[in-house]
Fold:
Amino acid sequence: MALPVVKLDQGIHVMHLFYTIDRDLWADLPDGTSEETQEKLEALLAANTGPCEPRIDLYATVGPKADVAFMVFAAELGVLMQLHRDLENCFPAGSLDCVYDYVSITELSEYATSEEDSRQMLINQEKLSPDSDEFNERLAAIRKKIGEYEHYRLYPEMPTWEVMGFYPMLKRREGSDNWYSLDFETRKKLMKGHATVGRKYAGRVSQLISSSTGLDEWEWGVTLMAHQVDALRDIVYEMRFDEVTARFGGFGPFYVNLRVTTEQLWEHLRL
Structure:
């Protein structure tokens, strides 16, 4: 029986999965099982290579926290669930141990610059008349840029860069450092400065911020794509001096992962 169809009004579902492999069990597998597992996994990955969704990306995790990581994207919640099970079913029963998982959804930031913000900027800062051709041309260009930004926030097409970093985070709710007790305009001003730091890393880091409020103990999942790990270090380090992070940021475990093919994963893990 098919799973219920559950879709978002806007955006898609995201799942991060981190596993270790039971090497003792793996060593006792019948001949040919390892090759069969690799073939099953390769076929599943090949069937889910959408630019946005459905999509499954494969990584080897750096360090002993995990052996292998998957990032899964799907518009339907049932499809996300099925892809998760299909991944596990590629492997012999009991050979995978899930050490961390994270479910979230893509969302628009409530603090992003709106069209009305842009209108006021053109009028008050650039002194353009709202009746002028230049005003209308500038506003049309801004409107297009906002539309593109919103589309890729909701329907991300993550680059296939070599390094993927992931960590969950939240905003603190402790005494005077309670993010949710601040009024909206204060929060928006603080987030504008936070976003300014992130934009400095364009070309070095590609970010996906997915929401998990009400879905997990943490409130957001942060996925950072880069070509080198120092880019991950630099952006997180610099953002920690920003007030949004310094006063209100709380962080979960960090996972650093290297993008691989199934052949590279098998060779790396000696499977």
